[in-house]
Amino acid sequence: MDGKPAAGRLTVRDAAGVSQTRFIASDQWQTVTVTHRVAPLTEHVKIAVAPGVGDTPAEVGSLLLRNVTMDVPDAPTLSSSLLANPRFAHAARLGRVALAPLEDTWQQFRPRLAAATTDWQRYPLYAALLFPGFWGNFGWLQAPLPVWIYGLLAVVCLVGLAGTLMVLRKRSDPLR
Fold first, then answer.
1. Confidence (pTM)
2. For the chain: N or C, fewer Cβ within 10 A?
């Protein structure tokens, strides 16, 4: 810590509580360990290393960290994936840290179409099923239209799409 020994603290916080250990930081690398039993319902664990041992603003300084590990005593093979950036090789993305609690909620809204593009044979089938459903299978699918009407509607939709594309193309052309 700034070239002279000073106090520091290592804190682990989860849904159940906080564990903290205090240490004296010097100009030599040293290992600091804190043991904390993570609650079963915990979704996020925060690990903080800070100068000082109290909460007073006078306790300032800087610490150099080389590697942070989080080990599971019963399953040592899991420890490699428990921390996203253990050697601090990448810049911290504070926005990502702030939004991390919402990530599980957002996962259900992620588009899944990109994962399904490997099976191209299903697209015509889905189009054949969904197009009539959009235009005429109202209620409990008890009032379908004749097939030739769906064909006519498809032609009208394609002509409308072609006209829209032509108008957009003319708008994008520079003025002459």
1. 0.41
2. C
